[in-house]
Design a protein that fits this description.
Blueprint lengths: L2 H11 L13 H12 L10 E6 L2 H10 L11 E7 L9 H21 L3 E2 L2 E2 L4 H11 L6 E9 L22
Antiparallel strand pairs: 1-2, 2-5, 3-5, 4-5
Helix pairs in contact: 2-4, 3-5
């Protein structure tokens, strides 16, 4: 398989993994994933993101306790919390910071898939109670927005990719 085919395979095989074995994720794999996140595009290359990497079992469980859509953290080997930092964004824009952090999140999800690991996006933003819970557990300052919590781990194999292509969502300009 050539590089283009490999990239497309990763994109199309990426799935939301909610079932993990509980096995830890290596620091080397987490660094590879974080580097991919930081390779994302951002407005004027300001890179208004920060990442909190969680590997402590007690902290993962505490996050799972308070986040209604992140119960898979109980079995995840790690989590990456992607944060948007408006003060670092182009024009100090909250909107740019959120968009840019979302792009970094997608890179994290694809890198995780490419390593044979699994991940799922669980939102903190825009729900104030979830944002505040993540801030409290991880001691994140008020000027930084925890956008999401991405549980990462070794998949059990239960979760499968979905074909999301729908040609009704494509509109061709006449030329």
């Amino acid at each position: 398989m050539n590089e283009k085919e490999t990239i497309l395979a990763v994109i199309h095989n990426r799935r939301s993994v909610r079932n993990f074995t509980g096995e830890p994720v290596s620091k080397d794999d987490l660094m590879t994933i974080l580097k991919a996140g930081m390779a994302a595009p951002s407005a004027v290359n300001y890179q208004p993101w920060e990442f909190v990497t969680v590997t402590n079992r007690e902290t993962l469980n505490q996050l799972a306790d308070g986040l209604p859509y992140a119960k898979m953290l109980y079995k995840a080997g790690a989590a990456i919390v992607v944060c948007a930092v408006p003060d670092k964004a182009f024009d100090k824009s909250t909107e740019y910071a959120i968009i840019d952090a979302a792009l970094a999140s997608q890179n994290i999800l694809l890198a995780t898939e490419s390593l044979g690991l699994g991940a799922v996006w669980t939102a903190a933003f825009i729900d104030e109670s979830r944002i505040n819970y993540v801030r409290t557990v991880l001691n994140i300052p008020k000027n930084i927005i925890p956008l999401n919590v991405i549980p990462i781990g070794h998949p059990t194999g239960e979760d499968k990719p979905k074909d999301k292509f729908n040609d009704k969502n494509i509109h061709w300009e006449k030329y």
